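This section describes the prediction task in plain terms. A model, or a person checking by hand, is given the sequence of a single protein chain and must write out its three-dimensional structure as a string of tokens. No templates, partner chains or ligands are provided. The sample shown here is typical of the held-out split.
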Amino acid sequence: MDISLTFLVIGGDLRQNFLAQHLAEKGCTVYTLGLSGEHPAKGCIAVDSLEQLPYSPDAAILPLVASNDGVNVNAPFSTDTEIPLKEVCKHLKSSALIVGGKLSSAVQDIFRQSGREFADYFTREELIVENCVPTAEGALQIAIENTPKTVHGSDVLILGFGNVAKATARVFDALGARVHIAARKQRDLAYARTLGYITLPMTSLAKHLGGKDIIINTVPVQLLDGEKLNCIDRDTLIIDLASKPGGVDLAAASDMRLKVIWALSLPGKTAPVTSGIIIADTVLNICRERGLYDV
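The expected answer:
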């Protein structure tokens, strides 16, 4: 069934290109602005400015992250120097919906002042869960490329046991790694044990950091400070999957010559096609819930 909606897809990385293409394949009319030229979005209509839009779209889709400065769209490939969020609002009809990822309070204020409805797709549970798979696979890719040993037989310590940690543990366990889980909640530790993982409480983390081939952090709190980093073997690879501010004292790690890779936005780097489709389907769910179309 074709979906009779018109979208404006603005800025971002390659995820936006494949997001736009997926919507077009669903039967939507899709205009694009400021996307990467590396993989043109098939079936979409590229415009060079907001003024070139022939009519107002039903919804505008901003990237993940929507804005880096709280004023302009995050559009590194834009032919213009900037795409102000206020200008985007002016070119949308009053009933239009704006969706984006990680909408800051400053960005939300702009939308409120313009009277536009908005939604943050990064808070949606379906996106959070599905996005864990490309994140976990990306972590595996980093591990393979940056360690001299096979993942099979390696000791891998994962900090935290949320959605990302669970997906990452499954991937490494499937390749034969000895997966260790450090978590704060006893419930999480119990669940990890039922899956066959080695568990340890976060309160005794320092005692268990040595002897690990790979340490993967998923908690956006600085768990690995200077004191704990000093307990880690110098040939251990540390992968930080946590969003800002991250979980590793990078300055201390550098002084100790520890190898740390802070892998932000992995889905967009390692699996932009899948990640773009996940975002597109989440946006369609939001539009359906807001009454923009019926299944």
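For orientation: The first strand starts at residue 6 and ends at 10.
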